[in-house]
Amino acid sequence: MQKHFSLIDKPTFFGALFLLLSVVFPLVLFPEQGAEWISVGKTFMTDKLGVLYLSLGIAAILFMLYVIFSDMGQIKLGEIDEEPEFNTSSWAAMLFCGGIGASILYWGGIEWAYYYQSPPFQLEPGSEEAIRWAATYGLFHWGPIAWSIY
Fold first, then answer.
1. Are 115 and 124 in contact (CB under 8 A)?
2. Which positions ≥6 away from 31 have C-beta within 8 Å?
3. Which of 41, 71, 81, 87 has its CA 20 to 30 A from that of 13?
4. What is the CB neighbour count within 10 angstroms for residue 13?
5. Region label for 38, one of left (φ > 0), alpha (ψ between -120 and 50) or beta (otherwise)
């Protein structure tokens, strides 16, 4: 156990643990106020910062395209004469599956129903407008802007 503990980057680990506990404890100790804090935070993030979020996502896409097609995209990681451990398609598949694997298995089949029953933007659950949003809202989570941020 001591051997494994010595491998931990203590400032990073304990800093992250402190931040986590400083958020979790107040939410556990004051659940009603915590729900209100989370609601206020969510409203602020979606109502006030929604355009900023989408703008940063588009900027991330443009930056990734620049990196891919510029000289930076030709930088080889590792030794000059070293062969890559994985080919490009295997590497891309690992990135894709690692980033989306569990989420798509869980949300892929139920996300539309979740948005139909609890639609965003204070729409009436089960309404025709909720059906339209349920069919399209997942693109914000699974589309190119979200992937550029990943």
1. no
2. none
3. 41
4. 11
5. alpha
Distance from C-alpha of 98 to C-alpha of 90, rounded to nearest angstrom: 12
Residue with tokens 């804090």: 37
> Domain tally for the chain?
1
How far is residue 78's CA from residue 84's CA, in Å, rounded to a whole number?
8
Residue 23 lies in a domain: no
Alpha-helical segments (H) within 8-87: 10-29, 31-43, 50-69
Rg (CA), the chain: 21
**Cα–Cα distance between 125 and 135 in angstroms, integer?**
14
pLDDT tens readout for residues 32-58: 999 999 999 888 887 888 888 889 989
| Whether the model pTM is above 0.85 | no
Quote the CA–CA distance of 72 and 42 in Å, as a whole number.
37
